[in-house]
Amino acid sequence: MTTTTLHPHPHHKSPRIRLAPIRGLLVALAVLAVVFGALDLSLAQPFGYSDLSSTASGTVSLALAAMGETAIIVSGGLDLSAGAVLSLANCLFVTQVGTSAGSMVLWALLAIAAGGCVGAVNGFFVAYVRLQPVVVTLATMFITQGVTLLILKQPGGTVPPDFTTALTSDVANGHIPMPLVVIGVALVVWYVVKKSRFGTMMYAIGSDEGAAHLKALPTRSAKFWTYVLGGCFYGAAGVFFSAQTGGGDPLVGAGMLLPIFVAVVLGGTPLGGGRGGCFGTVVGAFSVTLIANMLLVLNVSTYYSTIVEGGILILAVLGTSTGLRWSRLLHLPAARRGASSKGSAPATPAARRDSASDSTTSMKDDLPALSLRERLRHNRETLRLCLPSYVGLVVLLAVTFILFSANVGIAGYLKSLLVLSSFLAILALGQGAVVLSGGLDLSVPFTITLAGVVLTGVTNGSDVAALWGVPGVLLLGAVIGAINGFGVAVLRISPLIMTLAMNGILQGVALVYDNGAPTGFAPPSIRWLMTGQLLGVTPVVYFLIAFAAFAIFLLHRTVYGRRLFAVGSNPVSAKFSGVPVTKILILTYALSGVCSALVGVMLSGFTGQAFNDMGDPYLLTSIAVVVVGGTLMTGGRGNYIGMMGGALMLTALSTLLSGSSLPVASRGVVYGLVVLAAVVAMRERRAS
Length: 688
Fold this sequence. Notes:
With 688 residues, the chain is mainly alpha-helical. The chain has two domains: 60-322, Orthogonal Bundle (ABC transporter involved in vitamin B12 uptake, BtuC), CATH 1.10.3470; 419-645, no CATH class. Helix content is 71%, strand content 1%. It is built from 30 helices and two strands. The chain has a two-stranded antiparallel sheet with strand order 1-2. The chain is globular, with a radius of gyration of 27 Å.
């Protein structure tokens, strides 16, 4: 018997399954399987149909919003307005919808369209005006929140029962939960978009926008419509949230941003753009919901939820990171940031560093030998950065005195202005230094809150305890900032993601520490600093003058300051020039943490107590001060004198708005518009 051996053709290749394109989805499925298994073991009874239905219902809003965020991240962008747009669609729908089927369909579509309109605003400024997506979407987030509060001031409104039934009941004779059908329809929409020419352009732009532009792809148009698509997904999430809860909540979006990013990253979409997709994001959203359910089953306090979400976000980013530089993750290409003007040869690393220092340092050693006219010419760039904020301050002061001259004493008003601006002036040093390095610190709100809560808790009105309590709180802020810096500089996590996750972790830590209700009082010495009198002036004014002098010296007269500007101008060139980039970044974020903690101490003294949301108003304002003060958001250019002017100007603006008849909700709208206007003006000056 003869045995015949079959040999494959030498050119024949065995079929292989390419796993790289779906690696993120496979990881997301593996995580979901682990989480589901742990939850199933925690339940008294096996996971059943009712559990599936309730889980799906609780996941849809998060999944839809995260899908919109995914589309934008795939195209190389970021969107911080997702939660705010969800709230807008929710409140718009519940306040306007009628009981007829036509009204329900109409207002559902209009709510989704409202989300698309916000996305169009974001897309216009990002794609056509070419502003940084982080700053644009942060500004529109506050504008949208203000508009939402004008529509619905507090939770309320009603949703027709038929609408709720239509989106949350079962179909196919009770065998399929309707929420799963909604998710399925959304995935079909995503699949169609992904396979279209528009979808191909999204991925091409996210992979390499420059190369896509060279291939004659309409990159600006595609980026614009990607933000519109994302806004429509956020609007759909708000509509489903209305059906799920039966009412409206203008503040629901504030807590959605962290879970949205967790779902996106856990679903395998990296923040560098060009890879990932919504299928994995939906899986990630289910994982987030199941983790929250498991904490409830285990009787873990809900205070730990943001701690878990923040930790998962950091771990997920580390798991999906491919070694991209943090400058790319923030969409600030080092080559573009460090390049000279168009048509000129690129500068050497040392020249870039010196140029960055020269453009931001207000004085040089040889200035005493120059005439006044020569000094003005030498510091023309510094004046260009600083003057707008002071001009705005003078205008606001004039308007205030004209409108309220009968009720406002000039001396008393100016003293109050300095006291109130002290918080922003101190935050300007920390946030400003981070922005000068090319980053951003979103952990400011709950660093402030945790510092205030801890100080009042450990001192409880004792000056003796304050002797070690205040330094301890400032050290706590430094540690928080150093952890942020370590994540950014060493682990190469995007500054936005690292500080956003840290803010969520700190929120949970603060709630766990005070059990949701802060106790204790500020020490009398801190209260005297903020509300007492010394030679007819509140003592904090003297402290503010000394602090401003220290900040100017630190940023513009020290080795650290020169190195900071070099890192912000071009981190790669700075590293080759011998600048310890990692050390500088860690120190910079630690400085921001100390400044935030100091503001927490001062706020507790100003109010006498601490409360759990005392830092919330300072997220946008800390960035607005830096931008209005003339600091370039891509790093490497700015001046603390301008930031100080920004602090005074925004405080004067806030005071003017407080004395007017405008609703409180309008302040966020005004602040957002001011930031957008300042960023546009900065871009124009940069291009000139």
